[in-house]
Specification:
Endonuclease III, domain 1; DNA-binding; 12 helices
DNA sequence: TGCCAGGCCGGGT
DNA sequence: ACCCGGCATGGC
């Protein structure tokens, strides 16, 4: 078979997965949050943490009207840690949040317009330079707050691709970049598509593809 | 009750 | 270049 034909099969399968999920769950309208700042804060707080706990932590910040750049910039780190306690790793995350806010405030005056006018990939490198921001967090910020066409890869993405034998399993795990390239090379570069696709992956992952007990029977991807 | 959750870092090999 | 321990709360 020609390489191009194989390529088209992969593209087809990927779009098929997307269509099934989209039909099953309906539009998910990510990222949850009232502002770009809230999205970026959420991206940091949700590291290895379920969204419900993050949601609580964000509500507590909002309760005191502190979900603003200047407030977060001036807030005491220890106090911030107590505020975000429900999301876990609160000392670590308070520090990481501060690192990001310091960067955002000092380089871009806390303006998302100024920040996201920058080129996607140089901005990505810049974000990765902040201690506490890794690839998934950087890409979540770029895609969901910046509306940049860059695909977000997380543990669910990896797990689901493995279960459907679209990437290597266990030992010799494919890197973040390889998986990201797999999506981006086989899909149109459309931030709305990447937005919805990742949201759908998380949804099916949470509900049908858990680590301990996957429910493959009811999974909308079962027959693929 | 124990395992899991929308990772990342620093240190060791 | 991998591999590992640490970080921590709340839900099921």
């Amino acid at each position: 078979m020609l390489d191009m034909e194989k390529d088209n099969k992969v593209k087809e399968k990927l779009l098929n997965i997307y269509q099934r999920l989209r039909d099953f769950f309906g539009p998910l309208s990510w990222w949850p949050g009232d502002s770009k700042l809230e999205i970026m804060v959420g991206a940091i707080l949700t590291q290895n943490t379920n969204w419900q706990n993050v949601s609580r932590a964000i509500s507590r910040i909002k309760e005191y009207n502190l979900l603003k750049v200047t407030e977060l910039y001036n807030i005491d780190e220890k106090y911030l840690a107590q505020l975000i306690k429900p999301c876990g790793y609160y000392n670590l995350k308070a520090k990481r949040l501060k690192n990001f806010i310091n960067y955002f405030y000092r380089l871009y005056d806390g303006s998302t317009e100024k920040m996201f006018v920058r080129d996607c990939y140089s901005l990505r490198e810049e974000l990765l330079g902040i201690n506490g921001i890794g690839q998934e967090t950087a890409d979540s910020i770029l895609l969901y707050a910046g509306e940049k066409p860059i695909f977000v890869v997380d543990s669910y993405t990896r797990r689901i691709l493995e279960r459907h034998k679209m990437i290597q399993c266990d030992s010799n795990k494919d890197s973040y970049e390889k998986i990201q390239a797999f999506f981006m090379n086989n899909l149109p570069k459309d931030h709305n598509l990447y937005n919805e696709f990742h949201a759908q992956i998380v949804m099916v992952g949470k509900n049908y593809c858990k680590l301990g007990k996957p429910d493959c029977q009811k999974c909308p991807l079962s027959s693929i």
